[in-house]
User: What shape does this take?
Amino acid sequence: MKALEQRILKEGKCLPGGTLKVDSFINQQMDPMLMESIAEEFSHIFSDSGINKILTIESGGIAPAIMTGWKMKVPVVFAKKSLPSTMENILSTTIFSFTKNREYEVYVSRDYLHEGDRVLFIDDFLANANAAKGIIDLIHQAGAELTGMGFLIEKAFQHGRGPLEKAGIRVESLAVIESLDGCRIRFQNE
Amino acid sequence: MKALEQRILKEGKCLPGGTLKVDSFINQQMDPMLMESIAEEFSHIFSDSGINKILTIESGGIAPAIMTGWKMKVPVVFAKKSLPSTMENILSTTIFSFTKNREYEVYVSRDYLHEGDRVLFIDDFLANANAAKGIIDLIHQAGAELTGMGFLIEKAFQHGRGPLEKAGIRVESLAVIESLDGCRIRFQNE
Assistant: This one.
């Protein structure tokens, strides 16, 4: 997606260790107009997938997910990183965060993710796919069906796509970064 | 806002201790079509306020904030509940959570909240206004100007509005709950 790539080139900051900081338009300050274009793109890409629900994880995925849900006219469910005292019928899984070097739990209620659901997962980043694997586990526990995964930015050099595609999952990323070597942002197929 | 009130009556669950659970359309599963109506309403209410930015707190406020930002064509910034290792120029404040009975910190970067900003704060709930007071502190630290606060649901019986209005802040809530006594949801001016 050209508009996203251009924005990454213009405002993205590359930090040592393969970190790409996109705080000015995605991760802390969000550009709603860009989010709408992103949602339009996901809605187009997954138009034939027959989904009835979008799933994401707080907080990075919520904005693109809600706008994609609006475009596709389906509800959006988000997995939580802390367990609300009022949650019932809890499903949970453990995710290892590479960035924070620790494990964390995510929770979703079976009331909103269950058998019969055809789910599109939306998130901001695909890196080593640890979060994505946790989501697959949650969807499996719920007895729901995963129809695809859509990411705003994929860091191809962290190899998350391989295991997902091996598991038969359709993976679509709007901007695929081949390398951040020498703090130069290089997209795939450049 | 009639559509929101009707949805609360239909799907809201009242729990002991004055808790209103709206997990099926706001707090875990979100209805994007309702969020768009909410955003339209906020956009109308605050159309004359000359804002250049919307501020919210993760995670409950993100969905209504991003859609309102889209309607009003302004960026949306969210205060974070955990400190990202890459955040610079950090502003922080402490909020006491009545629901969880503990304090937590929220963080925002001065890069995205600063002097000259005219800010609309959007959040899901107004209860005792503890989060709102933290936000006022952050905006004050940043040297920005708060032009108003918009909430989806106000629990009037927890008296958060008083201190905010006393501080000269414009407070607008789309559904105001007068009482949950006996687990009956009663709106103001019914």
About this structure: The interface with chain A takes residues 15, 19, 21, 23-25, 27-33, 35-36, 58-59, 62-63, 66-67, 69-70, 73-78, 80, 84-87, 99-100, 108-109, 111-112 of chain B (CB under 8 Å). Residues 68 and 174 of chain B are 13 Å apart (CA to CA). Residues 2-187 of chain B form a domain with the Rossmann fold fold (CATH 3.40.50.2020).
